[in-house]
Design brief:
The protein is an alpha/beta fold. The chain has a domain of about 350 residues: ABC transporter transmembrane region fold. Helix content is about 60%, strand content about 10%. A six-stranded mixed β-sheet has the order 6-7-8-3-9-10. The chain has a four-stranded antiparallel β-sheet with strand order 2-1-4-5, covered by helices on one side. Strand 9 and strand 10 form a beta hairpin. It is elongated. The relative contact order is 0.09.
């Protein structure tokens, strides 16, 4: 997904940055306030030292009383101590509030993914947007995270300007005595206007040139991100445990050398950014630095000429040079930050395009009846469905009913529509045509979250986290330990569980704990099954969760699982038929349609049917 090659207008850039500031402030007030307080303190307090130091120098050069000098020295020391201590406190406050800022900012995207329609969350377009946002941040820091730094720089520049202006204004208003001869020209309003105009022009032009240099990176962000992606993959390939065997056997590291040794690579000596650095980017940055030196020279000349003319003493010289230099930096900082904000605006636009993806799925409001007898009935009534952007029906005219306590097997070849059937059942998607009913009521009318709580599912691509075993089963930090143990036992994990020294507190995998245990594919499926049982929902769905097991082990799991689901409705989905023999109803899917329904005995007798064909293709695994 590409970023707009053209910079956005100043008006649009400000609108997007203002929205980013507002979003960050309302999400994390303490982090924002702590950072701003530190910036204000850092911006203003140097002027205290500048002012007091200037007074001390003046007192020394003018032969002031020792008491006055001693007082000024003590004030300098005391102010420095107070400033340092307060600054340390503010810095600690900022660091404390900002310690997890990176993760909290990315939580913005996580929350959006969890609340947007699943049809969008499941789409390649949305994943491409999020991937680009992440790459832009990891590549050059672009995006909403950069807004914190821009807020800090804006506050710093504004308050630095305020303090500098307060200490600098007398530089222009202090007249040179008429007795100074030719120096009196420095009192001319025209001369002062010319000097001020020169200083302002140089001050503004320097950061504008620096921003121009930075804009080359912004408008080439796609190439920048691509370079980071290539390095992130090929440069670190040898550290991927899952790929280590392949890399070694086929010497894929040699292939990777192309991306690390190619001088024409994006970031290499003959690459695009190197050419830009030697060309326009380098020229703009050099010109910016040169103008900064010109400004410093002009300040020294002007201040020293007024001092020589007798407008003020040597102490004021140090005050004016220091304060006007900071004043200039603040103006430059404002302009540079404004330019950076404009450069960042295109990346903010992508962020807000992502966050503004609308929810179109009706959420419903009816309460799902919590029946003690678990008496629920699901009906698919002429349901058809096409995935967004597809012209082909994934399901077509599917009609069927099943009641609580039934065992339903959904079978068919890969791509026949089985998983799509489950996604519609759980209302991850809404039908394109037809309707799905729960106890006679269209499921769209039920509260969305409450309806989903009726189901406990193990999908094909289920996930376990590198957390403790018990937390994976309960999907919670606090949980019923006895219930978690029983669910693991019922799911067939009992023998392995007895071998774990830490029991439920055992960490899975080693990402976060070096004592974590590595589990096999079959063991991870048992834990996923235990998680399904722990939720204790009236509908249990197993969407080919035993694919990593051999057919005989799969049959054993299904048989044991059938015994423990008790009065719940169980839906077993598989292209293998281990689950079918003990199910009440079997639905055979083919090309998105139900082509057969019945019991195992009924369907296996139909020698012309698809089920008969599938069964005898796998008969050596299931016949007694």
């Amino acid at each position: 997904m590409n970023i707009d090659k053209k910079l956005l207008s100043w008006r649009e850039a400000w609108r997007l940055n203002r929205r980013a500031f507002s979003l960050l402030y309302h999400r994390d007030k303490k982090a924002v306030i702590s950072r701003m307080a530190g910036m204000v303190w850092s911006a203003l307090t140097p002027y205290v030292g500048i002012y007091l130091s200037a007074r001390l120098i003046s007192a020394l050069t003018e032969g002031a009383d020792v008491t006055v000098i001693r007082t000024l020295v003590l004030l300098n020391l005391l102010s420095a101590a107070v400033i340092s201590l307060t600054g340390a406190f503010l810095n600690k406050w900022k660091n404390t509030e900002s310690s997890t800022l990176f993760y909290r900012n990315f939580q913005i995207y996580t929350e959006k993914m969890m609340t947007m329609d699943f049809a969008d969350a499941d789409s390649s377009r949305i994943h491409a947007m999020y991937s680009t946002i992440k790459q832009n941040y990891q590549g050059a820091g672009w995006g909403i995270n950069l807004s914190y730094r821009h807020m800090e720089k804006l506050f710093s520049a504004i308050f630095t300007f305020s303090g500098g202006a307060a200490l600098t204004i007398s530089l222009f208003t202090s007249p040179v005595p008429d007795s100074a001869g030719g120096y009196s020209v420095l009192n001319s309003p025209l001369f002062l206007l010319m000097i001020a105009a020169l200083m302002i022009a140089v001050t503004c032009l320097s950061p504008m040139l620096a921003n121009k240099a930075e804009s080359y990176i912004a408008v080439n962000a796609d190439q920048h991100s691509l370079g980071n992606r290539l390095f992130g993959f090929f440069g670190l390939l040898g550290f991927e445990n899952d790929l280590a065997a392949d890399v070694r056997i086929y010497r894929q590291d040699v292939l990777c050398y192309r991306f690390s040794n190619d001088k024409n690579g994006i970031f290499c000596s003959k690459g695009m950014f190197a050419r830009l650095a030697r060309g326009p980017m380098g020229l703009y940055k050099a010109a910016s630095s040169a103008l900064s030196v010109v400004f410093t020279g002009a300040v020294y000349v002007f201040v020293c000429l007024k001092a020589l003319g007798g407008a003020f003493g040597i102490g004021a010289v140090s005050q004016y040079v220091a304060s006007i230099t900071r004043l200039s930096k603040s103006i430059g900082g404002l302009i540079q930050t404004a330019g950076e904000m404009r450069n960042n605006a295109s990346f903010l636009k992508l962020t807000f395009d992502f966050l503004d993806v609308p929810n179109r799925m009706y959420q419903g409001s009816l309460t799902v009846e919590k029946r003690i007898d678990r008496d629920y009935e699901i009906e698919f009534r002429n349901v058809s469905f096409k995935y967004p952007g597809s012209d082909t029906n994934a399901l077509k005219n599917v009609s069927m009913k099943f009641k609580i306590g039934q065992r339903l097997a959904v079978v068919g070849m890969n791509g026949s529509g089985k998983t799509t059937f489950i996604k519609l059942l759980c209302r991850l998607y809404d039908p394109t045509e037809g309707e799905i009913l729960l106890n006679g009521v269209n499921i769209k009318k039920y509260d969305y979250r409450e309806y989903m709580s009726v189901f406990s599912i193990v999908f094909q691509d289920y996930s376990l986290f590198a957390y403790q075993l018990g937390q994976n089963v309960a999907v919670s930090v606090e949980y019923d330990r006895e219930q978690a143990k029983q669910c693991l036992e019922n799911a067939g994990f009992g023998q392995r569980f007895s071998e774990l020294p830490e029991g439920l507190d055992t960490w899975l995998y080693k990402e976060f704990n070096e004592d974590g245990v590595e589990i096999s594919g079959g063991e991870s499926q048992m834990i996923a099954l235990a998680r399904t049982l722990y939720r204790d929902a009236p509908f249990i769905v197993l969407d080919e969760p035993t694919a990593a097991l051999d057919p005989e082990a799969e049959f054993e799991v299904y048989t044991r699982f059938d015994d423990i689901v008790e009065d719940k409705t169980a839906v077993y989905i598989s292209h293998r038929l281990a689950s079918c023999r003990f199910c009440d109803v079997i639905a055979v899917f083919d090309h998105g349609q139900i082509i057969q329904q019945g019991t195992h005995e009924e369907l296996v007798k139909d020698e012309k049917g698809k089920y008969h064909q599938l069964w005898y293709a796998q008969a050596q695994y299931y016949n007694e």
